[in-house]
Fold these 2 entries.
Entry 1:
Amino acid sequence: MNDPGFDPIDVVLDTPPLTGTLERVEIECAAALLVQALKVLGLGWTPIGVRQLAETIKSEMDAGNKPIATWSRNPFLRPDFAGLVARGFAVKSGPQGDEMLELTNECLLRLLPWVGWNKGDNGDHG
């Protein structure tokens, strides 16, 4: 993946997250969870293990940390990670049981409107 010129920490994640960006709310939710996990772990735009992603999401929900805890209470925000991959917004690699997910350049380009400096937002949204 090429360096998009911004990091996960720069992406503003509101509720609902990434509205109108990736065609379906379930796919936008999956992408937002992935971005938020990368933020929490300080990984930048690197592949993340599916297990590590699930553990991070659960830890954030259990701790009541926004925005993941807020999203988890919304019955309309259900992530579709398979759809994220199927539509070309992420790639899955690695052996079964040890899969990794990584957002594609196409997905990162679509995140540009959500980068804080493009939204004129200096606030912390997660």
Entry 2:
Amino acid sequence: MSMDWSILLYFCIVVVIFLLLIVYSLWRYRSIKCLMEQQAVKRSGNVVGTFLLPLLKFSYRALPVVVTSVPKSKYRHAKTEVGITLLKPAPSDITILKESVATRLGKALGAADLVLGNEEFDREFLIKTQDESFARNFVNFILQNTLLEMMEEKPRITLEGTWVTVQVPTVIKTEEGYDQLLALAFAIVDRLFYHHFCFSQGNEGRLSLYSSEDRLGQDHHQTYARDGLRSGRTPPQFVSSQGFYQVSLQQHRLRQES
């Protein structure tokens, strides 16, 4: 009885493909963990979790930050997500997402959409919120530009109570990609700080989202800007990864004092 070599060849091909898929999967998860470890060193954090679901943890402004990255599978979509837990609920829930065929169809059928007046941003992004006044102040020009720069990655921002999430529907494969996503998440936190600092009533609640170190920084920047404005000099705009200390903030505080 002769052996059917075609069946044996088919079986060998299946085994080789299966082994290659396993090797590829292991390499993919290992790449994710390596990138997270690089970010952990840069941000004084650590990587925990399992090999198949590593979690990057560190702090920003004394707030806990958790980063996850999940490859696409049969049962789930790929995503990389930054989650930040606030110490105090945000003034209102808000969702910002990239426009799609579905969202444009929804708007055509009457779904609500906040228009900010920036033609490019209004065309590319959809804002959902119950508090339009907060949303208009929160999504400022700098944040709009940051989102437009990441337009191809289709970022999605969700602010709900004390939970902030910034997500892109892909596995980030470069250190620069992580830096860009985290910069967007930090900009969200900075905007929340700016909103509370300028518009909250009473001194005790203004900086409750952040640490005492930030308060010292604000006192320094306020004094510098106040002296500059009263002497006729134009103070610099304090815009950095540590916060948006803008001239408009200083002018608002001066108007309150006068």
